[in-house]
Amino acid sequence: MSPLLPLRVYRGAAAVLALLSLGTALLVAGLPRGFELAYDDALHLVVDDASANQTDLAIRLMPRMHSQDLARESDFRGRDAQWRAIIPPSLAPVLDTSPGNDSHYSAKTVGTPVAGRIGSDPIPLQFVDLGWVSGADRRIRYVEGTPPGPPQTIASVPGHPDLVDVPRFDIALAKRASTMMRIPVGTTLILGNSHPSLARVTALFEPVVPTDRYWDHNLDAVQVTVRRVAGSDVEEHHITALVDISSVERLSSSDRDLRYNWIIGLSPSALNARNAPELITGADEYEQAIRGLVGRSINSYAQVAGFAPFQLDTGLRELLRDYLRRLATAQTLMFLVMGGLLVVAAGVMALSVQLLTERMGTSLSLMRARGASLGQVMRTAAGTVALATFPAIIAGYGLSYLLPGPVTPIVHLGPLLIGSFAVGFAAVRVALAHRTPLRERREDIVARRRSPRRTMLELLIVVLALVGAYLLRTRGLTTELNALGADPFLMLVPAALTLAAALLTLRCYPYPLRAVVWLAARARPAVPFVGLTLAARARSVTALPVVILLPALAVSVYGAVVGGTLDTTQRLAAWRSSGADARVESAAELPAKVIEQVRRTPGVRAVVPADKGMAQIGFGGRTATVVAVDLDAYREIVTDSPLTVPHLDDDGAGGAGAPIPALVSPDLANLSTFEIGWHVRMKIVKKGVITGGLPGISFAERNVIIVPYDASKRAGARTYTNMLLLGADEPGGGIDATALLNATGNVPEIFVETFERALDHVTKTPLTGTIKTSFLVVTIAMAVYALLTVVIALVVGATERTRALSYLRTLGLSERQAANLTVLEIAPLILITACAGLVLGLALPSALGPGIDLRAYAGDIAIGEYHLDPTTPILLAAGLAAVALAGAFVHAVSGRRRSLGSILRVGD
Questions:
Q1: pTM for this structure?
Q2: Inter-residue contact 374 to 443 (CB < 8 Å)
Q3: What angle do CA 732, 738, 742 make, to 5 degrees?
Q4: Which pLDDT score, from 0 to 100, does residue 136 have?
Q5: Handedness of CA 667, 671, 673, 679 (dihedral sign)
């Protein structure tokens, strides 16, 4: 028989299968693309936030012999060609070859002190290094003076008889450095205490594009580096001045600490979640290749004695490893989502295939009775299913290309596996049903014996799920053997647990139902007994609804629990970051005018001033973070937040010189009374210990001292304010960050943070949004699948149900009772499965919690325990059960239109 004939005759069942195939193919091909797009967006966000000197490849050399010095640009270019020739294939695709990329090479001195100035008084603790950077002339704009020229040799320097035949370099300084270090054009500096040289400032420059990634590698040339001298309050100022290429020949490693650098730029847009592990491996291989190349170039003992190793310096590996650790958690949750969705979709398609093959059952039995081989029967059924599924699957696959995101192998394989599963299931089911001609049985009367192989397979699934859950809890997603990513076996554990729970529910389902039937038999109404009896005698089709409904509900409940916990923890992280509804902070004291403008900002209800800084403990070198704040006033403005403010026992009594009460961190708890040097020296008396710092104000947890806001005034000075803690009219919002920035003058020296902005920083990341959106989309999809599951399951069993109803209607069964009987037939299955899915969904967070670290999505706050608010999960379970029961009721009501005569004829 041609497969086209059953397809035309049973076009209703075939249409249902085709629509399911279309939707499932679209989901299976479309969702992974969305996931991968979110993964890539998250990586690009990480890379964009990182500086170029973290992501690019830098080869560095500190020459130790004069023969290793490089004199011409061609020497640097030749080495650059060597480094590029040995780049591993895994790194080659991500190299930035676009015009104007940040690849370059440079020569720089390090730590060169300014020993004096010619014709003016020296300024102590200044360091000016000399550097040549390829391509700098195209990226700077001279704002004063003339570009540096070649170096000269000065025979003598008036006023400095010790300076004879010294080299003089022409240098260009960044304009900001010239102003900050007071080195104008025309100044001649004496560089170095030994082997001195002269440096004449001929020009000042500014970067053409200050945000160019090129300058991330050369910040020392455009920004002054300020370093505090250990054990004192004085500061050093460091800057690198630019010189002409002709000056490189005069830079000797024997006179100065010299560094050569080759920067190979990578394209941030070429990095993605799929090549990240290969890039880590490639960076390791590149490092080994550089060492091997240098090792092969050593041919003499003198070269060994002066061996200067080239070093690969890049933060790319650490950056990608941290990203992959975060990605592993997201992928595990996505595996849970996709695994549950695939199980549900496969189950619904299996039900639809079963519906079509049962409609074909009479025709196939007739074929078998007339001498058709089992292979012919299987080909007919499989061909019909293939004709119904594959065109729809191809259409769904094509529609998935309308969705954004990269194409991965699962996009191609997923729809193909769906179609193969449907065809294979049809062939196997028909083969089992028609092994012998005219083989018929009543599965609602004759129980099928359990196969030992099936029992062992189900037991194996349960054991593997439990072992996987244990391993996931004890060692997390990664193993020592798979340090670059997550263990695939452990990532499948959540889906395995849902499948194991479904199998256990399926095995245990008849036992409570039999008890209910026993009780119903003793009740007067007959409809409950008959409906429950039909449910207890249900055929093997009962297995599929259980396998479908339980994962659907478990994943939905788990998503609700995870989503609720993430929301709570993210808000806590935002509060800890902002410290109040808003915070204004500056390293220097805030002007009174700024404070007054902040008070008048719309939405600001209260302002609590504070002062934070570093203080010396005693007279030694130990320092601590000191925060002066009115804790009572601070507690009042954060009353409606999850922040807890400690209490400080301070009666305000005592005159000048009286000890000032304070809270200290645990590492200072051994100090009962001590002195600190801050704005003024003050005597501190410990009144309590604070653990965990003071989130939002002081993030340090060690060496922290909290004193009253007027502590400096009590010690004989005055109050200082460099921080404002703001309370809003509406807790958790109401203060506009832009308005607050305008009130502070919108200057970089004053930092402004609001709760809403901190919350956006935590929640509006690609991976976090993907997790929440995925759970929402899958929950909706699973609700639709649950409705279809019940309807299709009822349609599959419609023949036996109609036969039973035909006899019961002749005995006086009303239409309403018939509808109630149909609902009762399916209700026990739905309710028991809903309860099992609810329990599993609530248990999954505790079972998998230690192994799935969500701190990356919760503001780096470790989630110790999940917040199990039963309201949402119970509503989900009730809603899913109600949807399923509504489907059963609609199916039952639609059967009322049939006349009693047609029902009797079906029952004949």
A1: 0.74
A2: no
A3: 125
A4: 92
A5: negative
